[in-house]
Amino acid sequence: QVQLVESGGDLVQPGGSLRLSCAASGIIFSRNSMGWYRQTPGKQRELVAAVTTGGTTNYADSVKGRFTISRDNAKNTVALQMNNLKPEDTAVYYCNFRNLITVPPRDYWGQGTQVTVSS
After folding, report:
1. How far is CA 17 from the centre of its chain?
2. What is the pLDDT of residues 28-72, one digit of tens each?
3. Are 34 and 97 in contact (CB under 8 A)?
4. CA end-to-end span of the chain, whole Å?
């Protein structure tokens, strides 16, 4: 089992910045991906950004150039730096840990943190 603890959600004005952080604990396998998804009411959860233990990153087109994901493998933490935030970035953001050892890969989720972009 993997437990995820998130922090950093807040209310911010358009054009502002926020940093989300997530720490994983428990049984951490060496091949994994950590990232962030977001969800708004009535919509499916969507990938925002993810990074593997090897450093390969994947971003949603809507956040490229504005968001940066980073991780510390030694501490099993992942952070999402969000700049130039837009109202459409408003959502509940969920930290994701994907165990890549198993077939199929197994996902673990944080409890979610609210990001609201509004003036």
Report:
1. 15
2. 778 899 999 999 999 999 999 999 999 999 999 999 999 999 999
3. yes
4. 40
